[in-house]
Each structure stands twice: as structure tokens, then as C-alpha cells.
Design brief:
- With 409 residues, the protein is mostly beta strands.
- The protein has one domain: Neuraminidase (6 Propeller).
- The chain is built from 2 helices and 28 strands.
- The protein has a 5-stranded antiparallel β-sheet, with no helix packed on it.
Length: 409
Amino acid sequence: MHPLIVSKMSLRSHFFLLICFSFLVSCQFAGNKKEIGYGEEVQLNVKEIVVPSSNVLNLKSYYLSFVYQTDSLQMLYGYNYKIHGLDCFNLKNMQSSQITFLGDGNSAVVRPVTGVYVQSLDSIWIYDGSQRALLLDRQGQLLNAVSLRDGLTSDEQVLIDCNFAISTSKLYYDEQHKSLLYGIQDTSTSPYSFKVREVFLNGSFPPVMYLLQSSVSVSDVSGGDYGNMSGINISFSDDNILYNYPVESHVYVLDRGTKQTKVVDADSRFTKNLAGKCRSRSDYSQWIRHAVENPHFYDIMYLPEREMYVRLHLGEHTFDATLDADALMDDRNLYITLFDKEFNVVGECSLATHRYNYYTAWTAVGKGLLVFVDNLMSPATKTDRLEMDIIEIPMKTENEGGYKLVSLN
């Protein structure tokens, strides 16, 4: 059976509706621990994309997504667990399609799917339950398969995950090196340690292992004292490995050339910067309470068009046992922190409340971020539409003080 490719939506047929708008937001400038002055007032441009129900079965949000872009193309790929395939949205011409994965045969993709990297329209890397990186074309046919477990010990586990309630570790393809990079958790050490492994596809070089520094704030994130926040976030940009720990605010940058690590103070002025310990290592109700009452720091994303980095994080919230836990989660505030190319913190702002899904895959796109609109506290949840905001980051002003952001609320 061949994969199903569906291309149905277009502006002319009215299957796809795009609504774009811009609005101002006001926010206090925030920076590093050092004092940074105010810059000129700037606007964050927020574009809303609304996709109504159609014969392309899309979700309201995607836990795994990726944007592939060229000068003339912006293509959003979202893993659709219902069809076991990719929903593909061209953000330039408003057309959409689907790639349905095969369930058996040589090109089969095994659930769960936790990693995606789009090298080109006909070269899509998928990490699946077989612990292989599969290279597929746009029809879903297998071009290459790389076992990511080869050469690992029994104590080393492949770490490619997209669980935003815990941590995220991404699959990355290096075009220059023709290599794949991915996280490793080593359970032979105490506490557990984390690494990144680079595998060269041409086989001319042996794999390279990069050891990641432990948290400077928490001696053991994996020991069970921090509930769901027991992992590490790993992402990539050019020659850097970017990582951080959900329990604390520091950012870690490993230069793959020198293997030197830079630790960046990236405190928030709006929230706590270190999670407290959970009341129990085994009572999941206490894990939920811990998640509500503490901040959660997400992965670092690189914006090449801006030569900047951004980080999102959730603020803490008062726990109320009489209220629904999911509603408490979605009642929290989401913040964005901006870094320049040298990893100086140049701004921080709160995003719109009761609007975004905090457990699905926002992703870098163009000059900013694409975030899914899907929140239990929002009236938009009552519709079947797929909604996304593209939050564009402005260019830095000439003022040495950095940014002064205006509010998203």
C-alpha cells in the first residue's frame, strides 16, 4: 500500500483561510543579572493563522513539529498521531497536504514518533520506535535508515523526545558534516549524565561523543526530587549544542569545535529561577502539584534570520486542590526571553494569557516563533479550527541598551 498524499486546500477553493493581524503588547524590559538599560520601544508583530475544518484531518495542535524554509517557502510539518503521518502546511501559498506513514514493509514507521528534521522537501528525517532515524521522501518512501543504538552500551539510552511536560531533546542533521546529532542519557553514572552523539552518514569518521555539563544549580535533576522535570532540553544551531534544564534558568552552550561550554545567566525577572523539590518521589498527585507551583524552562531556539536565540518558560502558579489540574496548568503565564548572538539577554516579555498550548511543539519560523493556539481557558478551544500565532521578533535597535518590548496581553 502506498502512502496517501492529499493536496486539497487553496485560497481559491476556500478550504484554507488565513487571517493576519498585528497588535501591540506592553511589557517590562528584562535582562541578565547585570543592569541593562532600556532601548527604543519596538513592536512584536503577531500574525494569526486560522485553518478551518476541512477534508484534511488536522489537529488543534501538534506535539511534534518542524518548519522547513527557503527564500520562497515556509513549510510547517506536524506529526498527526491520528493518521500516523505528517500534516504539511505551506505558509506562503496556503496549500496543505498529508504524508501517511506505512505501517509495514520496508518503509514502515514504528510508533511512537518523537523526532523530525526536514533536510529538504524530499529528505525528511523521522525518529521512530525502532530507534532508527529514517530518511523518507515526500511520498513516505524510505531512502535511508540509520540505527542510533549501534555502538551504545546497555546503560546508554537514545534521548530524542518531545514531551514538553518533562523535557525535549531534538534530532538534528548537520548539512556540512553530513551527520546526525542526538542526545544520550547514561544511567551508569550517579547521578545520570547526558551526552550528545554525532554519527557521520558517510562512515568515514567514527562517531563523536560530547559530554554535557551537569546543572550548576541542581546536583541531581534525575534523582526523583523534581517530579516530571527530571530531564534535559537539547537543541542545536550550526556548530553549537544548546541545552538547559527545565528546573532552572541557566543556558548552556557547547562549542562543538572547541568542546568548551559557556554557562549563561538567564534569570527571569517575572518568575522564580529554580524549581523547589517535589514533596514525593512516587505520588503522582504531588508531581502535578509540583508542576503547577514551579517554573518550567523550555529549550533554546535559534532564529537565523535575526541571529538571535529565544527561550520560552512557564511561571509558577498557586495550587488549589478544589480546581481541575489541567485548568490550573493552562492558567499559568508564558514568558519569552531574547538573547543576542553572543547569548547576552536583551529582553523578556510575557505572552498572551489563556491562548497557547504549553505542551505542544512551538517551533522557530522566519523571524520568530510559531505557537499553537489551544488553551482550556480560551473560547477558541470550543472550535475545531487549527490556529497558530507567528510571533515575529523585531530587529535590535541601535541603542546599546537592547530591547524594550511592548505587551502581548
